[in-house]
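Moderator note: this is an archived Q&A kept for reference. The question asked for a predicted structure of one protein chain; the sequence and the answer are reproduced below.
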Amino acid sequence: MRKVDEANTEAKRTTILRAAIRCFNKFGLQNASIQDICREAGMRSGHLYYYYPSKDAIIEEMCLMGTEELVDRIDHMLDTRDIVSAVVDIHQEAEEGRQKWEITPALRLELAAETTRNERLRDIDEDQTARFAEAARRAVSRAREEGKLNSKLDPAHFVDIVMLLWFGIGWRRIERDFDLERYREAFALLFEPWLLEPKKLAKSKKTTRAKA
């Protein structure tokens, strides 16, 4: 019986969360009310409060979705030899996860702005960012030890660059004609010095000049 109750509770919470996200997309994060969410979810406010004590609690749940899975994915993102694709693809996978919940780039911008006003959301955002960065540093350190990255690479600096790229691409997604694939070549050029040992890099540059 307990498993059935837990499943029903999770289903109700999912219904409310999806309804809230639709309302946030339609009315905006600040303007959407509990009444709007109740109408969208097809339930009374008293029923909704049984699962979420406030609108802020719903927003917090939305921000936390997929965190554990993404941390694990980042931790192993450099298990492949194709470092550039790994860095780009992890961002794409995260975006696809958000799209399944209809979390749009515009809504993400609103959430980012909300962290400047809501201390609890700011704490969640900072904790997530720190966990993502730490997972990325572990991945980079292993890749360097395995010879996939330049042995002189500073994992912390490399991760700072990767995180900036991830955040930057995320904000560019608001553009109607956004195309992630056009960034892959730019990423390859940016990461080339980090992917090869100094001697191999020098040889690669000589070969490139010779072809030119």
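Archived answer notes: The chain has a mean pLDDT of 89.
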